[in-house]
Specification:
This protein is an alpha+beta fold and about 550 residues long. Helices cover about 25% and strands about 25% of the residues. The strands form five sheets. An eight-stranded mixed β-sheet has the order 5-6-7-9-8-10-11-12. Strands 15, 16, 19, 20 and 21 form a five-stranded antiparallel β-sheet that branches. A four-stranded antiparallel β-sheet has the order 13-14-18-17, with no helix packed on it.
C-alpha cells in the first residue's frame, strides 16, 4: 500500500508492521490477561503492543512499555496485583473506546494531511521566472491527495506563484481553476499584483466536478458508493475537495526555498469553491481566512433532515425535484440514498454525525478563538444557500453581504444592487495587510416594530465602525426556505429605499408601508464603507441580519 492518506477512513489503523494503538486491540488484552496470569508485577503503563515478538521470534503476550527495567515477565501476580492490572486495563479500554469512536468520526487524518513525504510530487514545470508588471517565480506540480477509496489514488495539480526576489509569507489559495488554465503561467490580476508586491504568494489548485478534470468515471462511482454507504469519505465534496485544498498548503510549505513556514492562508471562491474552504478551515488551523459566496453556512433543520421541517416544506410546496434545494451541504442526495436502500433515519444519523465537521455555524467559537476572518455572500435567491430566514434568526453575528436578487442562475439582480462592491478584494487586502488597511464593517444589530400600518426598522453598528450609507430591501409573504418559490419570487423593483441616519441615537432607520393583506415581511439592509489601499478605493458592503417579522402590531 502506498504511504499517504490511505488510512484516513480508519485513522486508528496504521500500515502493517507499525505499532497499533490499544483501541485497536483491547480484546487481545482482556483475553490474554484472562488466560495468562503470568504477567507484569511492576510497571509504568505508557503504551501496549499486544503481540510483540520475543527474541526467538515467537509471539507472546503483551509487553507494557514504560521506563527500562520496569517490566518483568514470568512473575506470578498476587490477587491484588492482578486486580490492579485488570482495573488499569479496563480503564484504558474505556478511555480508548471513547477516543476511538471520536477518531472514527474525524473525516481527516490531519497528521497525514500535513505530511509532505506522502505527496508523491510530480514536477510538470519547475521553478522559473515569469516577467510582467510584478515579476514572479512559478512552479506547477501534481500531488497525491490520498486514496478516495482503497486502491484508488486521487491526484490534483497545484501551481505556486511567489515574488521573484523573495520568499512568500503567506498566500491566497483558490480552487476555482481548470487543468488547462493551470498549465499556463498565471496572468496576474490587479489584486494578485498587490498581494505579490506585499510579499504574499498565490497557490492554485482544482476543486471542480470531476468530469471537468477527465475523472468522470471516478465521480460517478463516488456518487454510487456514497448513496449505498453514506460514508462522507466516499463523496467528493466531503473529503476529496477539502483534502485537496489542505494538501495544497502542505505542498506549498514543503517548498521551503520559496515559502516561509509561517504566514496567513486566505481562501476565496463561490459555490463549491465557497463550500470547500468553509469546510476545510474548520479542520486545518493553517488556514486563517475564508471568503465564500453562494454556499452553505449554517445547519438549518432542512439540512439536518428534520422530518417536521420537511413535512412543512412539502405541505406548502408539494413534492418537487431540485438538485440542490434541501441538500445537506450541496446537492440533495436524499432520493438517491433512499433508492439505494437507506432509510430516513439513516439520513438523519448521517447529518447528525457529519454536521460538526461541515458547518461554520457549529464551529464559531473555535474559529473566533483562532481569529479567523470570515465573510459570506449567500445571495438572497440561491438554491445552495436556501435558508436565509432560518440563518438570520439563529446566527445574527455571522458577517454576510446580501446582494438583492442574486444567487446561482439569477442574472439580473435588483435595480438597486450594489454593482460596484469589491468586498473580496478589500477582505483579502485587509487580511494580509492589517496595518495598512482599515477593517471592513462588522455585522450590525437590527430591531423592528410594527406601528400604524408601517414597519419601523433600526440598524446600529458599533461605535467607530465607519459605515457611510444604508439601504433597506423587503418582501411580503416570501415562500418558506428551501421551496421553489423561495427562488422564483424576487424582491420587487419598488421595494427598496434609502435609510436615514439619526446622529442622536447613532442608528440607521427606515419606515416601510405595509401590505394590509400580508401576514409577514422579510427585510435586510446593506451599508457601505470605502476601503483604501495604495491609492485605490474599494467599496465594501455588509448586511444586517436577514429578518422575518410577523405583522401583528407588537414589537418583534
Amino acid at each position: 500500500m502506498e504511504p499517504g492518506l490511505a488510512n484516513q477512513r480508519h485513522p486508528v489503523v496504521r500500515e502493517a508492521g507499525a505499532a497499533r494503538g490499544i483501541s485497536a486491540s483491547w480484546h487481545a488484552w482482556v483475553t490474554w490477561l484472562r488466560d495468562k496470569p503470568m504477567v507484569v508485577a511492576r510497571m509504568s503503563l505508557v503504551h501496549a503492543d499486544p503481540l510483540q515478538s520475543n527474541k526467538t521470534g515467537e509471539k507472546q503476550g503483551p509487553v507494557l512499555v514504560g521506563k527500562p527495567d520496569t517490566v518483568e515477565q514470568g512473575t506470578m501476580m498476587r490477587t491484588g496485583y492482578f486486580r490492579a492490572v485488570i482495573g488499569t486495563v479496563l480503564a484504558v479500554v474505556a478511555l480508548s473506546a471513547g477516543s476511538d469512536a471520536a477518531e472514527k468520526k474525524r473525516l481527516f487524518d490531519m497528521q497525514e494531511i500535513r505530511n509532505p513525504r506522502s505527496l508523491a510530487v510530480k514536477v510538470l514545470q519547475d521553478w522559473h521566472r515569469v516577467n510582467g508588471p510584478v515579476p514572479t517565480r512559478q512552479k506547477l506540480v501534481t500531488i497525491r491527495v490520498g486514496e478516495i477509496w482503497p486502491g484508488r489514488e486521487y491526484r490534483m495539480p497545484v501551481r505556486m506563484v511567489v515574488p521573484a526576489n523573495r520568499k512568500a509569507r503567506g498566500f491566497h489559495l483558490t480552487g476555482g481553476n481548470t487543468l488547462r488554465r493551470l498549465e499556463r503561467d498565471t496572468r496576474l490580476t490587479r489584486l494578485d499584483q498587490d498581494l505579490l508586491r506585499g510579499g504574499v504568494g498565490l497557490v492554485y489548485t482544482v476543486v471542480q466536478v470531476l468530469a471537468q478534470s477527465g475523472l468522470g468515471e471516478m465521480g460517478r462511482e463516488s456518487e454510487a458508493r456514497f448513496a449505498r454507504s453514506l460514508d462522507p469519505h466516499d463523496k467528493i465534496q466531503y473529503w476529496a475537495w477539502p483534502a485537496t485544498m489542505m494538501r495544497a498548503i502542505t505542498a506549498a510549505h514543503a517548498e521551503t526555498g520559496h515559502f516561509e513556514s509561517k504566514g496567513r492562508v486566505a481562501m476565496s471562491g463561490g459555490s463549491k469553491n465557497g463550500a470547500t474552504p468553509s469546510m476545510a478551515i474548520i479542520h486545518d488551523e493553517r488556514m486563517t481566512a475564508v471568503f465564500a459566496s453562494v454556499s452553505p453556512i449554517w445547519d438549518s433543520p432542512l439540512r439536518l433532515c428534520d422530518r417536521k421541517a420537511w413535512d412543512e416544506l412539502e405541505a406548502v410546496a408539494g413534492r418537487f425535484r431540485n438538485r440542490f434545494l434541501g441538500g445537506h451541504f450541496g446537492p440533495n442526495f436524499n432520493r438517491e440514498a433512499l433508492a439505494a436502500g437507506r432509510s430516513w433515519a439513516d439520513l438523519q444519523n448521517f447529518a447528525a454525525e457529519t454536521s460538526d465537521a461541515v458547518f461554520v455555524s457549529r464551529n464559531l467559537k473555535q474559529l473566533r478563538a483562532r481569529k479567523v476572518d470570515m465573510l459570506f455572500h449567500p445571495g438572497t435567491h440561491d438554491f445552495v444557500a436556501f435558508d436565509l430566514a432560518w440563518g438570520g434568526a439563529h446566527h445574527k453575528d455571522i458577517p454576510i453581504y446580501l446582494g438583492a436578487n442574486t444567487g446561482h442562475g439569477q442574472r439580473k439582480g435588483h435595480p438597486k444592487l450594489e454593482r460596484g462592491q469589491q468586498n473580496r478584494i478589500a477582505f483579502l487586502l485587509r487580511h494580509f495587510f492589517p496595518e495598512q488597511v482599515e477593517p471592513l464593517l462588522p455585522s450590525p444589530a437590527v430591531a423592528q416594530e410594527v406601528v400604524d400600518g408601517r414597519l419601523k426598522a433600526w440598524v446600529r453598528f458599533p461605535a467607530g465602525a465607519g459605515e457611510e450609507s444604508g439601504r433597506i430591501w423587503w418582501m411580503f409573504d416570501r415562500p418558506i426556505d428551501g421551496s421553489p418559490g423561495y427562488l422564483s419570487r424576487l424582491i420587487p423593483d419598488d421595494q427598496s429605499i434609502e435609510m436615514k441616519f439619526d446622529s442622536t441615537t447613532k442608528t440607521w432607520h427606515a419606515s416601510i408601508p405595509l401590505d394590509p393583506k400580508a401576514s409577514r415581511i422579510d427585510f435586510f439592509s446593506n451599508h457601505r464603507k470605502v476601503i483604501r489601499y495604495r491609492g485605490a478605493r474599494h467599496a465594501t458592503y455588509v448586511s444586517s441580519p436577514y429578518t422575518r417579522a410577523t405583522l401583528r402590531g407588537e414589537k418583534q
